[in-house]
Structures are given as structure tokens and as C-alpha cells.
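Project outcomes to date are best conveyed with an example. Our students and postdoctoral researchers have been running inverse folding experiments weekly, and each run begins with a structure described purely in C-alpha cells. The record below, which covers 394 residues, was selected by the lab manager from last quarter's runs and is presented without edits.
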């Protein structure tokens, strides 16, 4: 059986390769990132190359897979499985494997083009290696995990990130993400609502630069010492500042793009495998347009819904941490938001965002990609069972 499946899959791949449009499509995938970089301005070429790569791997390729795979299983005498119902399961499996192989080749071309663009730019496109803090202490004690600590704009209120071990180099650089809460006492008066101090054997105030509405970069002389602390103090009298342990990144070195691109490619491959399995299974029960619609809905749900449940939880955090309010039960709408936020993202946003900001991806993302690929492959037997027992409509 496996020999027949592999032979069918190989024949399907060779049929696709012989198509006149295959060479043009392969060249487009390989040259997409280099051409985007070449068309960009000198100061934004590195960021533009990362943006095109991330959007292609996170959105364009999974969307193309879920819409195109719905039309793979076409009934007809030429396809063979209509004449031999006992072999429909083999034909289904071969089709899925051939599609997965073509998607893998497309991913390899995209990643190869991104590596070519990075090599052409040289050292200016290198990624930064990030190091996180070991602990975070707020006005009400230490916080862990995804919990956020808040500091009020008054004396003695500050957030303290602590690092174990000395940092190399003469200068300490990094980025800090934060959240703001407005007291509504008066309009905000400062563009950068916080001050940063780095302390060790000495203490220096860091030079802060706004990178986005909720993100700043900082730079300060290395104070030395075995334990370093970064103190965050609210600077605007009407804005509270909150942060989580994972919101701080300190630059610990530089590296190339290969590891991060392979990680993003694995995540995209896992997402494509899940989308392919869902669409092919739906196709065994419905028509091709319905299967394509189901795939698009699944892609949208696992891309958009996990990001909808953060605001209510953040407001409760602030009330408990800052206003000394007691813990309160979430309402029905907030519980629904929590359920939606707990849905797994088809492509995790954290590695993509880190790569967009010029940082290397976290090693934990490889497990996410491998798990999604396993789930996608594990769903294929469901389609095999239904496909071998049902006559498809056109």
C-alpha cells in the first residue's frame, strides 16, 4: 500500500513540476524578498525584508494552501479513484503528501530568498540576541509569568527588573514594552511616560527613545557588578505604567538569520499542514467551495480570535494591583473572551514579532511548530476514512 501511495504522490509532484507556470512561480517565491529589499530605501531595507518574509510565511502561504487545496480532490475518470473505489484512500493520502511536499518546497524557496537578501545586506541586517530578566518586582512584590505589575506616578513607586550575572560590553542596550493606565485627572503631558535607571556597582540613567506607542528602546553605560537592576519609574503625573517579566529584552549579541528563518519556516509548515488536513477532510463531506470557505474560517479564527481577550483581564489586573481592590469574578462576556484568548494561534505571534523587531526567535517556538505539524498529519487519517466511503460531488 505504501509503495502505491508513494508512487502516486511522486507522479503528482512530477505532474506539477512539468507545468509551465511552475518555474515562474518558483522564481517569484525565490526573488520576492530580495526584490522587496532592493526596492526599499536604504534605512528601511532590513525591516522591509523581515516584513515581507513574515507576512508571506504567516499569512500568504497558509491562505494559499487552505484555498487551493480544496480543489485537489476532483472527481473524474482521469483521476482513477472513481473507477477503483477500494483505492480512494490511497489516492487521498497520496494527494495530501504531494501537496505537503510542494508546500515544503515553496517554504524552502521563500526562506532561501530571505537568506539571500540578508547575505546581500551584510552586517547591517544581523539580528540581535535578546536576554530576558530573571525577576520582576513591583510595588506590591514579585510577579511571575504573564502577570503584569503596575507602578503609580508617585515617590517610591517603581518596577525593578533584575538580572543575574554581569552583562558584557561597555554599553547596555535593549527594549521595553509597557502598558499605560490614565487616571483621567488631567491630560498626559509627556511623550515618554517613564524613566529608566540601570544600577549595579554604579547607577546610570538610561537614554530612552520611543519606538512605538507602547515600546521604548534604551541605552546606558554598563554599571558593572554581578547583579544588575533596571528600574522603571513613571514620569507623567497622570499615567500608571505596567509591565510583565517578558516585556524586557536586553541585547546580548548578534547573529545571522538562518536559525530564526528555519523556526519561522517550521511554524508556517505546521500551520499549512493543519489547514491542509482540515480542508481535505471537509472536502470529503462537501463541495470544493464549501471546503475552501471552511479553511478560510478556520484560518481566520485561529489568527484573530486568540487576540481578543486581553483588555478585560488587564483592567482587572490594574484594579487589583493598583487600587487594592479584591479579586472579582469575571462576567459572562469576560469569560467568553478568556476562552477565545485560550485558543492556540495557528502561527504563534511571538516569534514573528521578535523577528520583525530584529531579534532572534525563541527556541521554544520549534516545539510549537513540530506540534502543529504532528496535529496536521494526525488529522489526515480522518479524511482517508471518509474519502474511501463517499462519492464526491464536483
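After processing, the design step wrote out the following sequence:
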Amino acid at each position: 500500500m505504501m509503495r502505491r501511495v508513494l508512487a502516486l504522490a511522486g507522479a503528482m509532484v512530477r505532474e506539477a513540476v512539468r507545468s509551465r507556470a511552475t518555474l515562474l512561480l518558483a522564481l517569484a517565491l525565490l526573488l520576492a524578498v530580495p526584490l522587496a529589499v532592493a526596492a526599499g530605501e536604504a534605512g528601511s531595507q532590513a525591516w522591509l525584508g523581515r516584513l515581507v518574509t513574515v507576512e508571506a510565511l504567516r499569512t500568504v502561504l497558509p491562505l494559499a494552501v487552505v484555498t487551493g487545496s480544496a480543489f485537489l480532490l476532483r472527481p473524474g475518470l482521469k483521476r482513477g479513484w472513481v473507477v477503483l473505489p477500494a483505492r480512494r484512500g490511497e489516492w487521498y493520502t497520496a494527494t495530501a503528501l504531494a501537496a505537503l511536499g510542494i508546500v515544503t518546497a515553496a517554504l524552502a524557496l521563500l526562506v532561501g530568498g530571505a537568506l539571500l537578501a540578508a547575505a546581500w545586506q551584510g552586517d547591517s541586517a544581523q539580528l540581535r540576541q535578546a536576554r530576558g530578566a530573571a525577576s520582576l518586582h513591583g510595588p506590591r512584590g514579585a510577579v511571575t509569568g504573564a502577570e503584569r505589575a503596575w507602578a503609580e506616578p508617585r515617590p517610591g513607586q517603581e518596577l525593578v527588573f533584575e538580572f543575574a550575572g554581569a552583562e558584557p560590553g561597555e554599553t547596555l542596550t535593549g527594549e521595553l514594552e509597557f502598558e499605560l493606565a490614565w487616571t483621567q485627572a488631567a491630560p498626559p503631558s509627556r511623550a515618554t511616560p517613564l524613566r529608566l535607571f540601570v544600577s549595579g556597582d554604579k547607577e546610570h540613567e538610561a537614554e530612552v527613545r520611543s519606538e512605538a506607542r507602547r515600546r521604548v528602546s534604551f541605552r546606558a553605560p554598563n554599571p558593572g557588578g554581578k547583579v544588575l537592576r533596571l528600574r522603571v519609574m513613571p514620569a507623567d503625573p497622570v499615567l500608571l505604567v505596567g509591565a510583565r517579566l517578558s516585556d524586557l529584552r536586553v541585547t546580548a549579541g548578534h547573529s545571522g538569520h538562518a536559525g530564526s528563518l528555519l523556526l519561522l519556516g517550521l511554524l508556517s509548515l505546521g500551520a499549512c499542514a493543519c489547514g491542509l488536513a482540515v480542508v481535505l477532510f471537509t472536502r470529503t463531506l462537501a463541495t470544493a467551495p464549501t471546503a475552501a470557505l471552511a479553511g478560510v474560517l478556520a484560518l481566520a479564527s485561529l489568527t484573530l480570535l486568540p487576540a481578543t481577550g486581553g483588555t478585560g483581564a488587564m483592567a482587572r489586573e490594574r484594579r487589583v494591583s493598583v487600587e487594592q481592590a479584591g479579586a472579582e469574578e469575571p462576567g459572562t462576556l469576560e469569560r467568553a473572551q478568556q476562552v477565545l484568548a485560550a485558543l492556540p494561534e495557528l502561527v504563534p505571534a511571538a516569534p514573528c514579532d521578535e523577528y520583525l523587531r530584529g531579534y532572534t526567535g525563541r527556541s521554544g517556538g520549534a516545539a510549537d511548530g513540530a506540534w502543529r505539524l504532528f496535529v496536521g498529519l494526525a488529522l489526515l487519517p480522518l479524511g482517508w476514512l471518509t474519502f474511501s466511503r463517499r462519492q464526491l460531488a464536483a
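The chain has a mean pLDDT of 81. The longest strand covers residues 227-234. The training component of this project remains on track.
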